Amino acid sequence: MARKIIIDTDPGQDDAVAILLALASPAELEVLGIVAVAGNVGLEHNATNARKVVELAGRPDIPVYAGCSRPMRRHLVTAEHVHGPTGLDGPDLPEPSIALQPQHGVDYIIDTIMAAEPGTITLCTLGPLTNIGMALVKQPAIAERIAEIVMMGGAYFEVGNITPAAEFNIYVDPEAADVVMRSGVPITILPLDVTHQIQSTPERLAAIRGLGNKSGKAVYDMLTFSETFDLAKYGWSGAPLHDPTVIAYLLQPELFEGRHCNVVIETASELTIGMTVVDYWHVTGRVRNATYLRNGNADGFFKLLTERLARLP
Ligand code: BDR
Ligand code: CA
User: Interior CA angle at 167 toward 202 and 37, to 5°?
Assistant: First the structure.
């Protein structure tokens, strides 16, 4: 039976590819809904982009909700310098024809989890953790009903991408990330340590472009746009591809390796705010609250992604 997932996201070119990968995998994943959060750009753009992506995938039946428009305690930090002013610059996608759902995204998350059998819904988070943190605060009873949270966020061995210490998704709302990490929900983390190994080289992008379908072309156009910033920054032959690793992990966990350990979010220090402090070597007695993945198989990942994208319009 397909695993039921809710995708919480700030699309974002890499978020868009993650959504496409999930929608291309209906035998394994049932996408119940998509919830937008403020992050890469403002909430309104992110909610529009999510609707563009489900329509690109030929799935206008997937409900899209808007969640929180700002982090719990801080001013919103955005990343137009990577994703462009709309958050999804690159492809020429039509304005969405489906409407945004009227319910607030946080209430949708709470109601859906409370109405489902406990342990049957997995939350996939591809952006700042504001919606999930707010849902856990508003209805703490969801914590023991969520099957798992699989998140793209954090960094330890590779250190930060928005500050020297912090990864963007955690940095934008460290208080929300702190609530999530302390929730007791089983958590799996796909950090920069993994995603920096998953590089969209010209050959891999050409294979996706070569699929000849609308989705392959859109993914090519998205990633060739968003990689410009990272290629200049890192000097690698391909830019890291972050958010689709969450979906790839659900589909083929054997592509990744890591360990179960303690992860705590820094919320106080001005210098290292948003840092994910990972007790990878178990040097403390802190409770092991997350599976922290450290390595990913890039060839296996791109084989999976390319095969699945071929199934879309
Ligand atoms: C994360 O930040 C965003 O810009 C990407 O979409 C990804 O979720 C990587 O740090
Ligand atoms: Ca994202």
Answer: 90
